[in-house]
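Question: Hello, beginner here. Any chance you could explain the protein record under this note? Any guidance would be welcome.
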Amino acid sequence: MKIIDETSKARVVAFREAVTLLHKTENDELHIIESQDNGNKQRKNASMYDSDDDSSVSSTSTAMSDLTLATETEELYDGEKSLEQCLDSLFEKRGSTREKALSLLIESFANKMQSQFVEKKCITLLNQCHNSIKRGSAKEINLASCVIGLLSLTVGCDDSTAHEILEESILPFTQVLKSGSDSLKISSILDCLAIITFVGGSNLEDTERSMQIMWQFVNPKLGSNVLPSKPTANILTSAISAWTFLLTTMDGFKINSKAWQESIAYFSNLLDKDDRSIRLAAGEALALIFEVGSLEKFLITAKDSSDSSTREGYIHLQGLRGKILNQVRNLSVEAGGKGSAKKDLNSQRNLFREILEYLEEGYGPETIIKIGADVLSTSTWSQLIQVNFLKHFLGGGFVKHMQENAFLHDVFDFKPKKRNLAGSEQSLSSAEKRLFKSPNSALNKARTQSLNKKRMMSQGRNTGHYALSAGDEEV
């Protein structure tokens, strides 16, 4: 009996310990749930500070800074999140969280015109992207600059906000360009600067300012106040492409001839570089210079001048023109070399054949680009360079923007055809699609009426009351 009593006591003690542990676990779980609820309430209260007024930015920043401490360790992106949530996540301290939010914003802006969101939150989003550019990694800077470019394209040039985006971005951009030599970071900033100047530049001075920033990477000089070191081939190619893209918006006859002489001679030297991407970019720049009439302007100005130095310049330009023609001819038939990629070599040959044809016969590059069910045609170097640069920047979103972006419609004088009902349905939101497919929608009511009518006719044929001849039968 003594043994039995001791065993029973041991069981009772073990049972009591288990009950105590269970209560403790339940209390801990309850405490966790309450903490999560409080965090959700904080998040909800913080969102109430965010309004459409610019004055709310400081309040939003304060609220989100407090929220960061509670959510820094949470996994925020286990599914699709709204643009508002992405914007909120840009206030977080963790860089990876901001990078993920920026990636989702890029995907959203590239695949749909987010006009309503931009109208409300444009400046707040712009400020947060600038913060990412100031403090973020090279990857975050790349993503943030892409968002700024997409923001500008969504706003369009009819809104003064596009010019504000340009003006507010110049300072943080130049600071980043001075601070390092990472090719991803610098190339992204140069691409974005080209886009926001293309959209928001309101005068010649705006464009020249951006082109001057780019030119310091194209032709770096000793004592430059922007360029920290000699640019790599990738940076040089990006700078030339961005510079050339902005050149498409300018009238060559309004630009100082001395500056143009420098650019023509420099691009001619770049045609002899070993890197093929540099040669391609320099070739496009020279083709555009010829197209806008700049070289002819210099020749006419120099020929008619009585100044001896200007006459010498005329002779120099004539020789330069002949040199460029020979370079283009040689590059159009280049045999390639060891390790030369066939695709890259073919791209070079095709480009310089088109340039040669233009220089010798005056025919521009004619291209046809399929935009959904529509076709975009180009026949000048200016148009081709603009299309290629925008395709490079927008990536998979190029077709969508060409279909729906009014700014790009004006740039290319492109008028997409009206899509049929099925095509328009694909562009609806999830809620709109549910309404569209609702039994009470006008479309489904019409379908029901048509089916009922056909059903009555079918029944009538069986009884002879609604019999129709073959020619009168409805389909």
